[in-house]
């Protein structure tokens, strides 16, 4: 079985496998939960679990030290983490005057590559796993944040915007984890 | 070689799907396996559609099997199947000596009992891909010794 | 430009049929698409047999023109997953070349693949995807009468 047939673009295919697996996960949650809000919550929770596990891998790959401020965190998140794991580089935008809140603009979201949201799913935040993952990962780095999607191209917005808000610095104690 | 980062993310997601399905109705082990298998089926179906759209027309069953062992396997696991055997009566055995989704849990015997939940989705992958290519089958997997796995495909002829 | 585009499932029932907006005999087109299936099956079966001839075009998805009719030309395409695409063109439309038909099929096939990968789509169900519809619609002859502008 050593004969090579065609050379596939492996990175793209792993990406597709990820996209399709995520689709399977969402479809399972939709079967199990009546309300879109519940599904969103579950997706966020799963993202959180992924985020807290991903941090270690990220640290090993990036050799990053601690970020100096929230602006640097935004930079690392967009230009390194999103690039590394999702192969996209979101644009950082809409900083709040206090520099404690910013948006990642995703002009290309691999999670929704094939997705067309049914009309009766208008409250579903399909990509909510990303909110959880960002929240989980930053929490492991002693940053408590909130993350949500104010705009989503799946719902007809012209851009997908992931908003991240700094809440507080955590002390070195272990994070409390999910309730 | 360091594993591709997108792969790490896939594996974490895959684990989340498994542990989510297992967090529901604890008493129904066989149901959980079949839920996971059906997700694998759906994904396999989609990927077969994707991966065969630029190839030429398959002329027979063996060509389809070779596609599964080479292209499909490479797309899923970045390696090909190590061995393909058939009895020429509709049974094919695919052997992967280092099955990727078991590699991470293979470091101890105590994890062997977890193998079935990690093999349900991959069995579905194969069954879904074959079904979409017009072959109905039953796919089962057996751990030879961690992380080597044998997938047995029994073609269902109508 | 086509007057009718059809997508037929493995099991030979229609997944999608779209006709030009000004055709009067839409039922006829459904019938045409359906009859073309037999020709497709025949063609594919004959290709399967002639394994000794190893020319590449026998392994192609594009089957070319299926059968001639007085008013229309009917083209066929079959994927490895046994889904059939049919494009019906007016016989009077002589500018359309083989390569263009081929590329129309490619575009339909790509769009179809995306439909299958949509987690909300149930394989085997009729195609309801808006993006597939817009790809197919772009290949359909537009309404000829322009008196009534489209209101969106």
From TrEMBL, chain A:
InterPro entries linked to this entry: Bet3, NO_sig/Golgi_transp_ligand-bd, TRAPP_component
Keywords: Endoplasmic reticulum, ER-Golgi transport, Golgi apparatus, Lipoprotein, Palmitate, Transport
Coiled coil: none
GO BP annotations listed: Golgi vesicle transport
Pfam (any one): TRAPP
Source taxon at top rank: Eukaryota
A Gene Ontology cellular-component term: TRAPP complex
Subcellular location: Endoplasmic reticulum; Golgi apparatus, cis-Golgi network
Quaternary context: Homodimer.
Family of the protein in this entry: Belongs to the TRAPP small subunits family. BET3 subfamily.
Function: May play a role in vesicular transport from endoplasmic reticulum to Golgi.
Name of the featured protein: Trafficking protein particle complex subunit
Protein species of origin: Phallusia mammillata
TrEMBL record, chain B:
Subcellular location: Endoplasmic reticulum; Golgi apparatus, cis-Golgi network
CDD domains assigned to the protein according to its UniProt record, in alphabetical order: TRAPPC6A_Trs33 (cd14944)
SUPFAM superfamilies: Ligand-binding domain in the NO signalling and Golgi transport
GO biological process, one term: nervous system development
Keyword DNA repair: no
Pfam annotation, one family: TRAPP
Listed InterPro entries: NO_sig/Golgi_transp_ligand-bd, TRAPP_component, TRAPPC6/Trs33
Predominant cellular place of this UniProt entry's protein: endoplasmic reticulum
Gene3D superfamilies assigned: Trafficking protein particle complex subunit 3
One CC-aspect GO term: endoplasmic reticulum
Organism domain of life: Eukaryota
Keywords, sorted A to Z: Endoplasmic reticulum, Golgi apparatus, Neurogenesis
Role this protein plays: Component of a transport protein particle (TRAPP) complex that may function in specific stages of inter-organelle traffic. Specifically involved in the early development of neural circuitry, likely by controlling the frequency and amplitude of intracellular calcium transients implicated in the regulation of neuron differentiation and survival.
UniProt similarity note: Belongs to the TRAPP small subunits family. BET3 subfamily.
UniProt-recorded name of the protein: Trafficking protein particle complex subunit 6B
Organism: Phallusia mammillata
UniProtKB/TrEMBL annotation, chain C:
Entries under Pfam families matching the protein: Sedlin_N (PF04628)
InterPro entries attached to this UniProt entry: Longin-like_dom_sf, Sedlin, TRAPPC2L
Subcellular location, record wording: Cytoplasm, Perinuclear region
Record's GO cellular component terms: perinuclear region of cytoplasm
An individual GO BP term: endoplasmic reticulum to Golgi vesicle-mediated transport
Keywords (A to Z) from UniProt: ER-Golgi transport, Transport
Family the UniProt entry places it in: Belongs to the TRAPP small subunits family. Sedlin subfamily.
Alphabetical list of PANTHER family matching this protein: TRAFFICKING PROTEIN PARTICLE COMPLEX SUBUNIT 2
Entry protein name: Trafficking protein particle complex subunit 2-like protein
Organism this protein belongs to: Phallusia mammillata
């Amino acid at each position: 079985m050593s004969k090579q047939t065609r050379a596939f673009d492996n990175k793209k295919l792993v990406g597709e496998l990820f996209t399709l697996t995520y689709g399977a996960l969402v479809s399972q949650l939709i079967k199990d939960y009546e309300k879109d809000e519940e599904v969103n919550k579950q997706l966020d929770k799963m993202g959180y679990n992924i985020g807290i596990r991903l941090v270690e891998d990220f640290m090993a790959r990036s050799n990053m030290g601690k970020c100096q401020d929230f602006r640097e965190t935004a930079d690392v998140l967009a230009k390194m983490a999103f690039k590394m794991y999702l192969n996209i580089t979101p644009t950082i935008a809409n900083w709040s005057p206090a520099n404690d809140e910013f948006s990642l603009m995703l002009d290309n979201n691999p999670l929704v590559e094939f997705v067309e949201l049914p009309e009766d799913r208008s409250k579903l935040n399909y990509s909510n796993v990303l909110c959880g993952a960002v929240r989980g990962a930053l929490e492991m780095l002693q940053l408590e944040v909130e993350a949500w999607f104010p705009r989503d191209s799946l719902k007809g917005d012209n851009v997908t915007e992931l908003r991240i808000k700094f809440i507080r610095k955590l002390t070195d104690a272990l994070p409390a984890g999910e309730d | 070689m360091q594993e591709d980062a997108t792969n790490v993310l896939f594996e974490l997601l895959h684990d989340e799907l498994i542990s989510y399905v297992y967090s529901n109705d604890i008493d129904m082990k066989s149901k959980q396996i079949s839920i996971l298998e059906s997700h694998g089926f759906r994904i396999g179906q989609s990927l077969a559609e994707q991966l065969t759209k630029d190839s030429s027309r398959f002329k027979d069953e063996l060509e389809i099997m070779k596609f599964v062992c080479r292209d499909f396997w490479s797309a899923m696991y970045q390696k090909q199947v190590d061995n393909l055997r058939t009895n020429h009566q509709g049974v094919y055995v695919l052997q992967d000596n280092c099955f990727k989704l078991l590699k991470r849990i293979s470091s101890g015997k105590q994890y062997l009992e977890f193998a079935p939940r990690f093999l349900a989705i991959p069995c579905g992958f194969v069954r879904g891909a074959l079904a979409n290519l017009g072959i109905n089958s039953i796919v089962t997997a057996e751990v030879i010794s961690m992380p080597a796995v044998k997938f047995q495909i029994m073609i269902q002829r109508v | 430009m086509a007057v009718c585009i059809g997508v037929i499932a493995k099991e030979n029932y229609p997944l999608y049929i779209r006709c030009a907006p000004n055709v009067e005999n839409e039922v006829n087109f459904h019938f045409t698409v359906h009859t073309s299936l037999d020709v497709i099956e025949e063609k594919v079966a004959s290709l399967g047999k002639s394994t000794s001839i190893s020319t590449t075009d026998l392994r192609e998805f594009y089957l070319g023109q299926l059968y001639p009719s007085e008013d229309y030309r009917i083209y066929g395409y079959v994927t490895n997953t046994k889904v059939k695409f049919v494009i019906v063109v007016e016989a009077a439309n002589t500018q359309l070349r083989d390569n263009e038909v081929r590329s129309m099929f490619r575009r339909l096939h790509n769009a179809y693949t995306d439909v299958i990968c949509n987690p909300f789509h149930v394989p085997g169900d009729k195609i309801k995807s808006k993006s597939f519809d817009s790809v197919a619609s772009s290949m359909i002859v537009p309404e000829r009468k322009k008196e009534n502008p489209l209101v969106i």
